Amino acid sequence: MITDMQSVREKIDQAVSLLESRFLEREELIRLLFLGIMSGENALLVGPPGTAKSQLARAVAQLFGSGTWFDYLLTRFTTPDEMFGPVSLQKLKQDQYVRQTEGYLPTADFAFLDEIFKANSAILNALLSILNERVFFNGQQKVEVPLLFLMAASNELPEENDQLAALYDRFLLRYEVNPLKQMSSYELMFQLPTDPLPALLSIREVESVRRAAETVRIPESLIYMLYQLKTEMESKEFVLSDRRWRKIGQVWKTSAAMNGRDEVNVWDTVYTPHMLWDLPEDLHLLQDMFQKVFQDALKKETERELPLRKYEQVAKQWSGQEDALHSFQFKKELSRLSKEEQERMRLNLEECRIELEETAKELRGKLVQWVQREKDLPGYIRNRNFLLLNTAQYAVKYTHLRIQGERILQTLQGLYRTLYDREIPGVTYDYTL
What are the DSSP E strand ranges found in 47-98? Predict the structure, then answer.
């Protein structure tokens, strides 16, 4: 990881705070936009007029003082000249069709296109290559554009149109922006800051994060999580292209790089639902699907600290032999067993005792450590991903894992009492926490 990543995180934190003080009820969106900037993915905001979409885009660009900015409101009558620059008359005299792009979209670092789906076919093809490959075909030349991030907005989604569908697919990050809902927001709305935003970040830092993301690894468990999500979505007839799935993985890697890690963890995936939907009304269903695979992945990731599967296997193994061991322990079927069978059962009973005691003691110790962590779970989770919002809401997921562990411990203790008519020595635990 790059050595100044901590500095980048601190600057982003400061930038997020500044934007939150100006754009009320946009906390999640602001974090998603920074994730998009750092990963090089385009963002689409869908919502009614007057919800500060263009204002937010300009404010984000201000925070990157060294970048050039381009914005435009598209209509059915917008011409390529307005977007990509006028045709050079000098070149035209030499039979060359070349545009003068300086000051237009092909030379911008940051861009905002309002009413993006009103673009006509003369503009669409050039937009597609800029959005996806970051190249612009200027006459016979294929020119790389410096575009770091493009945010677009629309009051409505595209109708059935192949060209518009291709354009829509270029926006990995999608967010529905609604009018303010809370009374407190209306109270603050009339006293929001209006002074210019400082240039906190630089293009160099964006490039550093992207270079770091190239070396980040996605572990097999999270690749499996992605496949589970894909399978679950397809069973409900939600289909994403392979390109979009690959881009989702790249965003995860960028999140890990921003957090100073060389491997993705489950907390890098939390904003994934905003990369899945085609229709805003599908978001809630897709969030439910995501939360299911997220919880499974979280459980697997915490196995090193709280290996529930191992403890559960021990409980199941000996619970399956409970009746036979109980009968032998309390001399109910000794007359029907040979000496060899009695010796085998005695050894089995002793093995059971040792494993139950060792497993229960180990699990109890892990749970006590887990309870200590729960005293500051929001802080612990934020250390896993500094862009997380409302970390307290995620704490319940760790609490759910602890409760699973407590149930396994109760099973071990109950089995031990049944077989040995006493408590497991040295294993006391307060289940009222």
Answer: 69-73
Closest CA to 9 of 389, 271, 387, 391: 387
Q: How many CB atoms lie within 10 A of CB 124?
A: 15
DSSP annotation string for 144-208? E----EEEEEESS---S-HHHHHHHHT--EEEE------HHHHHHGGG---SPPP--B-HHHHHH
Handedness of CA 225, 226, 230, 233 (dihedral sign): positive
**Which residues have CB under 8 Å from 272's CB, separation 6+?**
229, 248, 252, 290
- Structure tokens that stand for 194 in this block: 């209006």
As to burial, measured by CB atoms within 10 angstroms (0-12 exposed, 13-18 middle, 19+ buried), residue 100 is: middle
Distances (CA, A) of 26 to 33, 196, 263, 274: 11, 19, 29, 14
CB neighbours of residue 179 within 10 Å: 11
Structure tokens at 269: 């995936």
C-alpha 10/C-alpha 4 separation (Å) is 10
Residue 174: burial class (beta carbons within 10 Å; 0-12, 13-18, 19+): buried
Alpha-carbon distance of 180 to 22, in angstroms, equals 13
In order along its 433 residues, the chain shows pLDDT tens digits of 445 799 999 999 999 999 999 999 999 999 999 999 999 999 999 999 999 999 999 999 999 987 899 999 999 899 999 999 999 888 888 878 899 999 999 999 999 999 999 988 889 888 999 999 999 999 888 999 999 999 999 998 887 777 788 899 999 999 999 999 999 999 898 999 989 999 999 999 999 999 999 999 999 999 999 999 999 999 999 999 999 999 999 999 999 999 999 999 999 999 999 999 999 999 999 999 999 999 999 988 888 889 999 999 999 999 999 998 888 887 765 667 788 888 888 899 999 999 999 999 999 999 999 898 888 888 888 899 999 998 888 888 888 889 999 999 999 999 999 999 999 999 999 887 6
Instruction: For CA atoms 319, 323, 328, 334, give the dihedral sign.
Output: negative
Q: What is the per-residue DSSP string for 381-398?
A: HHHH-TT-S-THHHHHHH
Q: Return the closest-CA partner of residue 363 out of 319, 318, 419, 402.
A: 402
103 in helix, strand or coil? coil
Nearest residue to 81 (alpha-carbon basis) of 143, 123, 142:
123
Give the phi and the psi of residue 226 in degrees, each rounded to 5.
-65, -40
Angle value at C-alpha 94, between 92 and 98, nearest 5 degrees: 45
pTM of the model: 0.85
Distances (CA, A) of 22 to 60, 178, 287, 429: 11, 16, 28, 49
